[in-house]
Automatic annotation (TrEMBL):
Biased composition (Low complexity): 328-340
UniProt xrefs under Pfam families: 2-Hacid_dh, 2-Hacid_dh_C
Ranges of compositional bias, category Gly residues: 361-376
Positions of the D-isomer specific 2-hydroxyacid dehydrogenase NAD-binding domain: 109-282
PANTHER family listed in its UniProt record: 2-HACID_DH_C DOMAIN-CONTAINING PROTEIN, D-ISOMER SPECIFIC 2-HYDROXYACID DEHYDROGENASE NAD-BINDING DOMAIN-CONTAINING PROTEIN
Keyword NAD: yes
GO molecular function: NAD binding; oxidoreductase activity, acting on the CH-OH group of donors, NAD or NADP as acceptor
Record bears the keyword NAD: yes
Protein name: Phosphoglycerate dehydrogenase-like enzyme
Organism, as annotated: Kribbella amoyensis
Organism lineage: Bacteria, Bacillati, Actinomycetota, Actinomycetes, Propionibacteriales
Domain of life: Bacteria
Similarity-based family: Belongs to the D-isomer specific 2-hydroxyacid dehydrogenase family.
This protein's UniProt keywords: NAD, Oxidoreductase
Length: 376
């Protein structure tokens, strides 16, 4: 019996590298774009979202009755999850861990660029102006990292390595954290941001984090501070951010994510003062596609061998949970995305059916071994 896995690509010809090596293990890959997804998932047991921001699965959900496992090649799963999927037995895994270091390096670059006044430096160079000025030291500055999962922790470690004092923001306050030292409660974010020079967002987009950075939070920040968002656009009230930048209430911002992507050419953020915009690329370094494909291939091997899958997403929380952080309450076990992998077992879809190349939607299933950012 050959196990069928549908692979959703932005274009059917834009395929993940190296998956052909798995075909000798009895896996059949059906490559498709969004238009062909309904046909591709019929009778398939697995689905890989190579087009990781696609929302096409929701529209073809009735055709996906045999799917027992979905892998999304992104840390965040907010564009994938919908109520029917959350309530099903389908296991979801993500690309937890792949983007941690590249994103941390991006944030470090943003911190250095702000401290060294790089934005004005580029503008002076463009105008052929020689302007001497003093800049700030990165060592001794303060960063508040919202999100204590794998990405947030890697950011904290890298910033601490250059002498930046770092605190974390999570759902509950605690002390003695190995990477942040002190974690403050998100419920009092406006009361905490006045401490920092850099407010860094590294949380998943959930109902609790949507609009988290609003006008009150921005007004409470120091006027020489900056905001760095590598999480999701809707976490920030962009109208309030635009007003804060234009009024000089905030010294700068670095945004890699937006409410609407690509950011429309006529969007006012393009012309906002002291704002750096990048095209949702903070985690994308040379070779990242090969790493994503290799991570998925490892989970395919585990799936076929009836071993626990890596990086299983808690669909109710919207991210990969981890162990209880030090000095945290037991309730935090479900909200901490630690660096270690989470394991789970894939079930035979919503209907108990398991698709194969030979049997379509029938068959008994293999019983196979069954994001990222975190919010602890």
């Amino acid at each position: 019996m050959r196990s069928v896995v549908a692979v959703l690509c932005e274009r059917a010809t834009d395929r993940p590298p190296g998956l052909e090596d798995l075909e000798s293990l009895g896996v059949v890959f059906r490559y498709c774009d969004a238009a062909g997804l309904a046909e591709a998932v019929r009778g398939a047991r697995g689905l890989m979202l190579w087009d990781y921001f696609s929302t096409a699965l929701r529209d073809v959900w009735p055709d996906a009755g045999s799917v027992e496992w979905i892998h999304v090649t992104a840390a965040g799963v907010d564009t994938l999850l919908f109520d029917e999927l959350r309530d099903s037995d389908v296991v979801v895994t993500n690309a937890h861990g792949v983007f941690d270091r590249p994103i941390a390096e991006y944030v470090l670059g943003a911190v250095i660029a702000h401290a060294k006044d790089s934005r004005r430096g580029y503008e002076y160079q463009r105008r052929h102006e020689w302007r001497y000025r003093e800049t700030r030291s990165v060592a001794g500055s303060r960063a508040l990292v919202v999100g204590t999962g794998g990405i947030g922790r890697e950011i904290a470690r890298l910033l601490r390595a250059v002498g930046t004092e770092v605190r974390g923001v999570g759902r509950t306050a605690r002390s003695g954290d190995p990477d942040f030292g002190e974690v403050v409660a998100s419920s009092n974010l406006a009361g905490e941001v006045g401490w920092c020079d850099h407010l860094v967002l590294a949380v998943p987009l959930t109902e609790q984090t949507r609009g988290l950075v609003d006008s009150a939070v921005l007004a409470a920040m120091k006027p020489d501070a900056q905001l760095v968002n590598i999480a999701r656009g809707p976490i920030v009230d962009n109208a309030a951010l635009l007003a804060a930048l234009e009024d000089g209430q905030l010294a700068g911002a670095t945004l890699d994510v937006f409410d609407e992507e690509p950011l429309p050419a006529d969007h006012p953020l393009w012309d906002a003062p002291n704002l750096t915009i990048t095209a949702h690329m903070s985690g994308d370094v040379v070779g990242w596609r090969e790493v994503l494909a290799a991570q998925f291939a490892e989970n395919v091997r585990r799936w076929l061998a009836d071993e626990p899958l890596l990086n299983v997403v808690d669909k109710k929380l919207g991210y990969v949970p981890g162990p209880v952080p030090p000095n945290a309450s037991a309730g935090d076990a479900s909200t901490a995305d630690a660096a270690g992998p989470a394991g789970g077992r894939a079930r035979a879809g919503r209907t108990g059916e398991s698709g194969s190349e030979d049997s379509g939607r029938g068959g008994g299933g293999v019983g196979a071994g069954g994001i990222g950012v975190g919010w602890g």
